[in-house]
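REQUEST ID: PR-0412
SUBMITTED BY: lab tech R.K.
PRIORITY: routine
TASK: structure prediction, single protein chain
INPUT:
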Amino acid sequence: MTGPREQQRVFGEVADAYDDVRPGYPAGILDLIIGYAGAPRTVVESGAGTGKGTALLRGLGAPLTCVEPDPAMAALLARRFDGDDLVSVVVSRFEDWIPPVGGVDLLASAQAWHWVDHTRRTRLAAEALAPGGVLAVFGHQYGFADEGLRAELDEVYLEHAPEIADQPGRPVDQRHPGWFHPDELRGSAWFTDVEERRVVTVMPFDTARYLTLLSTFSPHRMLPAPKRSRLHRALADRIDARGGIVEQKLTTGLWLARRLSQPWVGSRR
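STATUS: complete
OUTPUT:
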């Protein structure tokens, strides 16, 4: 590969690790989606990755189209759901995907909506949904159950990788300029009934798995390999000195909005 890597495409380099260590989503998120949207007949997932969100959405029992731009991630996703008649995989950016005539009942995105062009995504979501259809955006915000450990790891970042040291509750991708904020839905002419929900869980990672988790996040992927190795060695030393376990406090946010009922007239372009 020549030239700078695209930030959103670095995940395919570690697709297997991503699938292994990235946390899935609590069942409570699905319950909240059903409570708001009812039982959708058709579902599309934007940025399905290796299927962490897909596994949750599969519980809806509806035909599910997974749109994923990275071929390596999409291949793993297809293998994971091979033989599942309800799940289909499309290798495409959401911006280039053409929704079915009449739209779908539910458009969901798990930890990936920030990769969709933030100047167009609200309009694209409206065009993908049937009148009255629901947009569900959800993802984890990472924090530390042990604030003392967090402070020690902050020191390591400041010493070895200060350019990514200002990220609260690492590991995160929230530095991406298109990170989702619900105000873009509240201020939209196409959506109404915007709601926010939170589900909190704590997940322990031993040192090796925590470093693998870090390696699946774009800020770490984008570091030069020697710098990333030095950073990870220093983090491992601090974690091991405090018992070898990092308890990640996961706050899973869910944002829901309903597409206004009037027919949409416009072009995806």
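NOTES: The beta strands are 43-46, 64-68, 87-91, 104-110, 129-144, 191-206, 245-259.
REVIEWED BY: pending
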